[in-house]
Every structure is written in structure tokens, then in C-alpha cells.
Design a protein that fits this description.
By secondary structure, the protein is an alpha+beta fold. The chain has a single domain (29-172), classed as Hotdog Thioesterase (Thiol Ester Dehydrase, Chain A). It is built from 4 helices and 6 strands. The model has no long low-confidence stretch (mean pLDDT 92).
């Protein structure tokens, strides 16, 4: 990454963003807990949220069986070259809510991974766009595959910004050995 020029430093046009995170909890650390149990422990602050949350500025705010809600704060640190928030922020917010909705249905010893992510961006997000809320809901959770759908909307006004779907592979965790 290029270092700021002396002029950028002198005029205050440079920005800095720092975050820290706790070591993530993995399924292997689950101690025989279901996905929903792990998520509730995270929501209550007993387990850390995934490091990606701090990196991009979003957080899990609600979880129930088959449902997960994240909220995120857009900002200029997420800009693409056009001066709008990069679509990857919305895609990551969707992927998180979609996967977490699936995770909330899984028993101990089962895990998932995204194998397909469909994203529809319907409205631009700007640096001053207020908090976004992404709600994911599982549609089908079977022995080997799961599907879910989600929507990203303004937390205050309900305006739709994006919606998406996922297909996940569901699998047994490898035994520790």
C-alpha cells in the first residue's frame, strides 16, 4: 500500500482505521454445542464475534433458530473508486446473515460452508448512509445442503439496498485427533 504523501499528511486528507479482535471460536472449539447455542453465546458476549465483523464494521444483533440479523455501518473506508460503498460490503453482510441463519439450525457436530452466493444490489450505499440491517432466514436445511435468503435494508427507514440467496454445503465436523 502506498504511503501518504507529505502534502496529504500536512492537509489532513489521510485517514486511519484500526481494530482489534479476539481469537475466533471455531466449530472445533464448540464443546458439543449446537450452532444456535454458539451464536447466542457470541451475542451475549461470552464468545467473540467473527473477526470479519470488526474488519468491516458490522455485528450480529439478533439470532433465533433459522434467523440471523446483522447491522452494519457504512463509511468512506469502504469506498470503491466511484465514491460509493463497495458492493463487497453488502455481499459480505448478506453472506454473514445467510450463513448464520443456516448455522443457527445445525446440531452439535455439524458445520456448513457457502458454495453459492447470489447477490442483487438495488440501491447505492454512500459514506453517510445510516445503519444497514440485514436479516437472513433459512429456507431449507437438510443433511448435506441448506438454502437461505436475506435482505439488506435501512435500519431506520426500511429502504431496500440489496437481497440475496445462498446454497451451503452441510457436513460433519472432522473428529479431533
Amino acid at each position: 500500500m502506498a504511503q501518504p504523501t507529505a502534502e496529504e499528511v500536512a492537509t489532513g486528507t489521510t485517514r486511519s482505521r484500526t481494530h482489534t479482535w479476539a481469537a475466533p471460536t471455531t466449530y472445533q472449539d464448540a464443546g458439543g454445542r449446537s450452532g444456535l447455542e454458539l451464536l447466542r453465546l457470541s451475542l451475549e458476549g461470552h464468545l467473540p464475534q467473527a473477526p470479519i465483523c470488526g474488519t468491516l464494521g458490522f455485528r450480529l444483533v439478533e439470532v433465533d433458530e433459522g434467523r440471523a440479523v446483522f447491522e452494519g455501518e457504512p463509511g468512506e473506508h469502504l469506498f470503491n473508486p466511484m465514491g460509493t460503498v463497495h458492493g463487497g460490503f453488502l455481499a459480505t453482510l448478506l453472506d454473514s446473515a445467510l450463513g448464520t441463519a443456516v448455522m443457527s439450525t445445525l446440531p452439535a457436530g455439524r458445520a456448513y460452508t457457502t458454495v453459492q452466493l447470489g447477490v442483487n444490489l438495488v440501491r447505492p450505499v454512500f459514506g453517510d448512509t445510516p445503519t444497514l440491517r440485514c436479516e437472513g432466514t433459512s429456507v431449507h436445511v437438510g443433511r448435506t445442503t441448506a438454502t437461505a435468503e436475506a435482505r439488506v435494508a435501512g435500519a431506520a427507514d426500511g429502504k431496500l439496498y440489496a437481497h440475496g440467496t445462498t446454497t451451503c454445503a452441510v457436513f460433519a465436523l472432522p473428529q479431533a485427533g
